[in-house]
Design brief:
- There is one protein chain.
- By secondary structure, this protein is α+β, with helices and mostly antiparallel strands.
- It has 2 domains: about 1-30; about 50-150, Sufe protein. Chain: A (Alpha-Beta Complex).
- It has 3 helices and 5 strands, in the order αβββββαα.
- It has helices at about 10-30, 100-120, 130-150, and strands at about 50-55, 60-65, 70, 75-85, 85-95.
- A hairpin with a 6-residue loop joins strand 1 (about 50-55) and strand 2.
Length: about 150
């Protein structure tokens, strides 16, 4: 006997309701393709990929750009500023921005990575959940900059 015969209307109602709820859940879980409004505390990515040191030795401030680390989703590169040997600023120069999802991830990951690096005064920082590749690239670029500055 067929499951949706007319003598079983309650079964049809339950199946139709379950299908409707499932469809609504799937529709509501879709993300829009428009760029999210993000308030990043980092400048727009640059195309520079050189490692270098600059800064005034008169003030005891040293600025060093870390290596560009190629990740699965794109390059990651940071620039650090040291003042009297203390890490005072970390700026992400390059990071994945190819699609809205990258922008969304990095809008919350980069400020957290920066904050942790300044607090730890090293590249021994935790990975941000959901931004594993960016976190790894950030950590490696940060370590290369610290090595160059203190090296």
């Amino acid at each position: 006997m067929h499951a949706l015969k007319k003598n079983r209307p309650l079964r049809r109602i339950v199946l139709a309701s379950a299908a409707t709820v499932s469809g609504m859940v799937l529709l509501l879980s879709l993300k829009p393709h428009s760029s999210p409004e993000t308030a990043l505390a980092v400048p727009a990515p640059s195309s520079s990929s050189s490692t270098g040191t600059s800064g005034g030795s008169t003030s005891g401030t040293k600025t060093v750009t870390g290596d560009t680390i190629q990740t699965r989703w794109g390059p990651v590169q940071v620039r650090i500023t040291l003042k009297s040997g203390k890490l005072t600023e970390v700026t992400a120069l390059q990071y994945p921005t190819d699609n809205p999802r990258d922008q969304e991830i990095n809008s919350y990951a980069l400020p957290r990575l920066r904050s942790e690096a300044l607090q730890a005064q090293s590249a021994s920082i935790d990975t941000v959940s959901g931004a594993t590749y960016t976190s790894d690239g950030y950590r490696q670029s940060l370590q290369s900059a610290l090595d160059s500055a203190r090296g």
